[in-house]
Amino acid sequence: MFTSVRFQSEKDISGCAISGIMSESGKCFNGEQIIRSIANMHDRSNGLGGGFAGYGIYPDHADQYALHVMYETSEAKRAAEAVVCEQCDIHADEPIPTRALEQIRNRPILHRYFITVKPDYLGQHYDLTPDDVVVELVMKINSSTDGAFVFSSGKNMGIFKGVGYPEEIGRFFRIDEYDAYIWTAHGRFPTNTTGWWGGAHPFGLLDWSVVHNGEISSYGRNRLFLMNFGYKCTLQTDTEVITYIFDLLMRKHKLPLHAACVAMAPPFWSEIERMGPREQEVARTLRMVYGGALLNGPFSVLVGNADGMIGFNDRIKLRPMCAARKLDMVYIASEEAAIRVLCDDPDDLWHARGGVPIVARLKKPVHGSPAPRPGRLTQ
Amino acid sequence: MAGRKWLLEPDFLVERDPDRCIQCQVCVRQCANDVHSYDADEEVVRSDSSTCVGCHRCATLCPTGAVSIRRAQLEFRPHGSWTAHALRSIYKQAETGGVLLAAMGTDRTHTVTWDHVLLNASQVTNPSIDPLREPMELLTHLGRKPDRVEFHKGDARKVVTKLEPQLALQVPVMFSAMSYGSISYNASLALAQAAKEAGTFANSGEGGLHQDFRKFGGSMIVQVASGRFGVDVDYLNTCAAVEIKIGQGAKPGIGGHLPGQKVDAAISATRMIPEGTDALSPAPHHDIYSIEDLSQLIYAIKEATTYTKPVSVKIAAVHNISAIASGTVRAGADIVVIDGYRGGTGAAPTVIRDNVGIPIEFAIAAVDSRLRQEGIRHQASLIAAGGIRSSADVVKAIALGADAVYIGSAALVAMGCHLCQKCYTGKCNWGIATQDPYLTRRLNPDIARRRLVNLLQGWALEIKEMMGGMGINAIESLRGNREHLRGVGLSDRELTILGIKAAGE
Amino acid sequence: MSDCPYLIIGNSAAAMGAVAGIREFDRDKPVTLIARESEHAYSRPLISYLLAGKVDEKRMHYRPADFYARNGVRALLGLEVTRIDAQARSVSTADGQTFTFKNLLIATGGRPIVPTDLPGTQARGVFTFTTWEDARNIRAYINETGVKKAVVVGGGLIGLKSVEALKTLGIETTVVELADRILSSTFDQTASNLASAFLKKAGVEVRCGTTVSAIETSDNRVTGVRLRDGSRRGADLLIFAIGVAPDTRLARDSGIAVELGILTDDAMQTSVKGIYAAGDVVQTTDLLSGAKRPIPILPNACRQGYVAGVNMTGKKLAFHGGIAMNAVDICGLPTISVGITDPGTEGYEIKSKVDAEGGTYRKIVLKDNRVVGAIFVGQIDRAGIFTGLIKDKVDVSALKDLLLGEEFGVLSLPAEYRKHVVSGQGIEV
Amino acid sequence: MKRIVAREEFCIGCRLCEVHCLVQHSKSRKIIKAFRDEREKVVPGIKVESSGHVSFALQCRHCGEAPCIEACMTGAMARDPETGVVLSDPDKCVGCWMCIMVCPVGAVARGANQQVASKCDLCIGVATPVCVANCPNEAIVLEEDDE
């Protein structure tokens, strides 16, 4: 591993396409839809990366962490598995099913594991939750095991990604054979690297998955902010940073979703001054404490977790984002066309406002989430 | 016994263009060093270069541009080791037998690292932001931040966390500690007024706070230094924040000394010492011999101010600054000020000024990194001080990890200071570092205030331009954002310490 | 018969001041002005300059040509008032007109004194010198007869200004002064000596302590004078400048109270309501001595006229008195004298500095730590500061030592008073 | 009208006001030429008085009830009806020095040729009087009088 920050690989800079579909009632639907949507924005990608995240795809292993790991070598695979086994029990594992595709080359070894944390380990480390242990595990493998990279670690969800156009990656990973209640997808247009499989999106940690279009000019600041809270940003990507910030704010600091969004894309001070006293106190406090979480620069981001999907833009909306709903289906995508290709008569369709999140939530939460709230879209 | 001073040649050469001089004698009336004189018999103004300090007062006010000041042209035989500076220092010392004094920041030519760090701008992949059309936020809050924000369990719209007192800065630039005594009443007044007008803070320095300035308390930080001059509970409570001064970048490990002849009635009342007595600031605080003592003083001040004001600790950038800063944060400081090697002073032994401490660029980067590694960076705000000359320096300092900066010399220069480095003589021709009523009236505080506010306003606009170029519209996204810095002409080691990449990387 | 809301007799400084005073508060009602002389308002002191040829007739005018029109003044010039009827509130003129008035201002000024018991004063070549007409007549006489020598009787201001004019015209001139020195009423011995020396240097013969005992004439034309000491001076021209007396005839005849001059109150109103007087015709309070006497100087006349004018409109303004002062430039020697310049009695403190060679003199007279008089000869710069100190009765005990200094100025004044003098309407320090 | 306010506490006694006044009222209005060739022909309308560290610049106050106007026998000293500025007309002045006698601040001087009175004209025709414009410490400031 490189020891000095400055010698780490280049920070990823890319422009992209993103799309997400969700059934608020939690009905699972086939991955074919998300492939069609992202394929519709083919020109926003350049063949150097594509990926998908699906929620509800592993109902048989719903209580186990599904680790998706890519390996460069079988030695790496053995080394990583040894690390996993130190703290976790592997209940099942198998190669991730793929389809041979002419366009997809240089594929790594792709393997998935369904794991739980060993009760003994938790007994010893009573200050840690199983989530903490899995996060540590992922950080450890990704930062210190050469040739191994965990790219998905949530329960009952999975991330599939690689180098290629997103629709090719979809076919390669046989996305059309999975059913999920949330699908997000990403098509990548990196502007400065040749793209590697791990660097494709979505980026995930536990059940967080993030797809993102943009370039965060506050990246250096955000990375140092996370460093203050023990996060190691190894990938040099904006997506990684966004994921960790979500993880920090919502999982570790237990901020409500709206507060996390305010922290990441806060209102301008001039707007805060015009707020009512209570709202102002919230915004003021969040801005002052979480200045390091502010995401600056152009971005549109789609964040998924087991409970729902959040789309939001930078404060001054420098990247496109469009949303629509039809009955209990919610669509969020970079372009309107990517929604209309699936749903040409939406009940409602609108473009996101800068800094204002679009939230889609499960009417019945799947597991471990806060008390159910009326599912609604906020604009 | 004083010997003849025949070994010291003039530092400057005063040249008078006889074709332009109109014998108006403005120069004669403006030089406190008696360089110019009027020969009534011959009806001609003459100049004697030997006492010229190069302050340019005469040249600036000369209505015809007849006066010019040049470096003395007398050259020593070139010598790589025995430079003119080295020789002159010895001549001077051999004559006086004392410690050589200097003022302002060091004039040694060590690398100014600011000038080896370049800023980034957006192209194609990321739009730059036009600060004239889009909001561009510089508002900065200094003070301790909680580990996290806690929301009410039953009401997700209600925050439980209460913030500790914070200083709100409209522009992330404050005026450094400069005491009334080291600078004139008018200069102090202008700084306080300008801070108020620009929405930032001025610092009383260690000389107490004149009653007249207490109305600016909301825009003032008051210092508690080793001499404890002018410190009482009213003093502490009249201000926006209290700063414990441990050290000063220009003279780490050295105390201060305001000669008795400068301690007039007003300064005596402000400092709470008898008129005409020397105001001696000991080198250390004699109640702080270790870190836990500092903590006690911090909390004593917090008690005295009922926890309504942030407490700042100013330390000079010395070799193990990261560890000291870390300890200071853990001791309870809400704000830590790091004053770098090039920081200014009204008077310091030259040898100290020129040889002790480390530059602020490295100190601030090292401290920021260290505090983040320890996970305590949010517990205190970090102020960079000592040698900030421009808005670009401000941006670089913030990108290296500072929350805001202090400017001292730059503020003085805005008021007219020409960096002649003779503050300690009390003969400041610009009316700044003097108490001589003949000289202090030269600084009209209205003008000085306006110029200070202009400087801050100009810098703020430039900072916004630079931020906009980087695609950043809030200053908090610049803070510690070393991704936007690149080094040129720096060694690998220096780049590593600064945490920045080389240009091209 | 003509009915006048404002009627003014006279056309000089007091009259002009009155017009300004009236027009400050009443821009509507007509002002009627009757004057014996037929000239547009002119500056009396300028006649010596006119005579000398230093100013031409155009520059004699004290006010612009459109002054009357612009101020709504009906000016009846060259018309002599013969009688004031205080009861009927009317004025009769030589041409038989009668003007009734609501407010009347008597500004008839002064009348030159001519010795009454000296034969020959009616001869040609003998003049007084107080009017434009006098100047014209003298000039005409000089041109006509080619005057070579002149004698001026009287070494006061008018006398010396006429001497200056005559010298300018190249006429050999002797000034004869009854007192032991010239300018005896405004100067002290030292100043008089300096002035005498200066005049002598300029080629003027100065004879003091004597006067003309006889006028020699030939063909009813003056040819010379005999002095009381028995000596004789040939003279083609003889000017009497031995003083001016208030011209109180009209007032006296109408029963208005008169002493040396017309008596008035602070509002410049005479003993008859609605009848005012101002200028050289009145006697006023000498602010320094408290005595009532004529102080015939231009600033007083102007001010008194202004005050009278304001009061004639029904507004209130007071004139509390004046201070004798004069500035005169004699053949290039500038001099200023203010207040009590040569106190004969005890209780005064004198500060003085003389430079006989350089021809400069500065004298400050103090009483009870206050400046009451000053003389400046040769070097007169900033003398007005002393005038101010005298007027405002400022305690100068702290700055006595500075009074004679070259650098004495506003900065030397007590701080409070300094603020007072440099402030005032539209001004602040 | 405009009024000039002198701020004694900020006067630094440099006398640049006098220098620039002289230049402004010189024939050439070129500083070096004005001092070299015309110096004796102009008397500045402003005067700096100094005593120890205290100094201030004083020029005609353009008094509301100006004693110099009342004292002037020729009408040379008059108030400009439009601007309210008290001006001395050199063509009318005969040099009797009555104005010098009555000015309580000593702001009228004998002109350079000792023939006519000379005083501040508030730099008629110039937006800001040169003494105000050139005072390096804003010790002489021009204010617009609302009255």
The SS-based structural class of chain D is alpha+beta
Strand content of chain D: 15-25%
Low-confidence stretches of chain B: none
CATH level-1 class of the largest domain in chain D: Alpha Beta
User: How many individual domains of chain D?
Assistant: 2
Shape of chain B: globular
Strand content of chain B: 15-25%
Proportion in helices of chain B: 25-40%
Protein topology:
The complex is a heterotetramer of chains A (379), B (505), C (429) and D (147).
Chain A: E1 14-23, E2 29-30, H1 32-39, E3 50-55, E4 65-71, H2 74-87, E5 88-95, E6 109-117, H3 119-124, H4 130-144, E7 148-152, E8 157-162, H5 166-172, E9 179-180, E10 182-190, E11 203-205, E12 208-214, H6 219-228, H7 238-252, H8 257-264, H9 269-273, H10 277-289, E13 299-305, E14 308-313, E15 322-326, E16 329-333, H11 336-340, E17 348-351, E18 358-361
Helix pairs in contact in A: 1-5, 2-4, 6-7
Chain B: E1 12-16, H1 26-30, E2 36-39, E3 44-47, H2 57-61, E4 67-71, H3 84-96, E5 101-102, E6 117-119, E7 140-142, E8 167-169, E9 173-175, H4 185-198, E10 202-203, E11 220-224, H5 233-237, E12 241-245, E13 256-258, H6 265-271, E14 279-281, H7 291-304, E15 311-316, H8 321-330, E16 335-339, E17 348-349, H9 350-355, H10 360-373, E18 381-385, H11 391-400, E19 404-407, H12 409-415, H13 437-440, H14 445-470, E20 485-487, H15 492-498, E21 501-502
Parallel strand pairs in B: 9-19, 10-11, 11-12, 12-15, 15-16, 16-18, 18-19, 20-21
Antiparallel strand pairs in B: 1-4, 2-3, 5-17, 6-20, 7-8, 13-14
Helix pairs in contact in B: 4-14, 8-10, 11-14
Chain D: E1 2-6, H1 16-24, H2 31-37, E2 46-51, E3 54-59, H3 67-71, E4 77-79, E5 86-88, H4 98-102, E6 109-110, E7 117-118, H5 130-134, E8 140-144
Antiparallel strand pairs in D: 1-8, 2-3, 4-5, 6-7
Brief sketch in words of this structure:
By secondary structure, chain A is an alpha+beta fold. In chain A, 28% of the residues lie in helices and 28% in strands.
